[in-house]
Amino acid sequence: MPPKASRAGRLPKNWPSDIRYLTAPIYSPAVNAANLKAIRTQGKDSIAYNLPKGPYSLVKITPISSPTHPANGQSGLFTTADLKPGTLVLQYLGEIHDSQDISTTDHITKPDPHADSDYDLSLDRELGIGIDANYAGNEARFINDYRGIADRPNAEFKEIWNERTKERGIAVWVLPEGKSGKGKGIKKGQEILVSYGRGFWGARKDIVEK
To answer: Mind giving me the DSSP string for the chain?
Structure first.
């Protein structure tokens, strides 16, 4: 069952004034025609859903004030209801971009504007397509990594096919039960936590160690 949306046209509570709130992805003007076609072609492993527009009623953005929390002074995304294992929570929205954003003019290569973003997810590694919520996104941009907060993540990112917009995307899912039974769902009021992956932390190793 797709997630429920709150009344359209409203911003989620605690939404930052300097970030554009999205109810659908936006595209970098540098995305080429071939990659646009790939984004708008359903993949064989994509799970199809007719996703509503946000804001979403199952989650809330919450400022974090615990000194022991790695994101102290920032915000996290918490549930407003019990979520069962395997529940689709919401889509991750941002600016869809590709490797064409790294442009070359007069033999001078401009730096990748998304390279230092902490909000850039890979949609298609082979084609170099990503979704960056650094300057525009939705509630999903506030999901924190589990490290330093819990023993393991309780949610994950997976590719979906949005029947409403007819395009590929990334969504947040509660971890399934699995054979090990580790996926126990997320209780009301708990923080949604994922694993950012080794690549994310590897690229920021020098920053973390300073």
So the answer is: -PPPB--TTPPPTT--TTSEE-SS-EE-TT--HHHHHHHTS--TTPEEE-PPPSSBTTEEEEE---TTSTTTTSEEEEESS-B-TT-EEEEE--EEE-GGGS-EETTEEPPPTTTT-TTEEEEETTTTEEEE-SSEE-GGGGPEESTTT-SS-SEEEEEEEETTTTEEEEEEEEPP-TTT-----B-TTPBPEE---HHHHHHTHHHHH-
pLDDT tens for 146-201 read 999 999 999 999 999 999 999 999 999 999 987 555 678 999 999 999 999 865 43
Regarding beta strands 155-162 and 167-174, do their DSSP bridges make them parallel or antiparallel, or are they unpaired? antiparallel
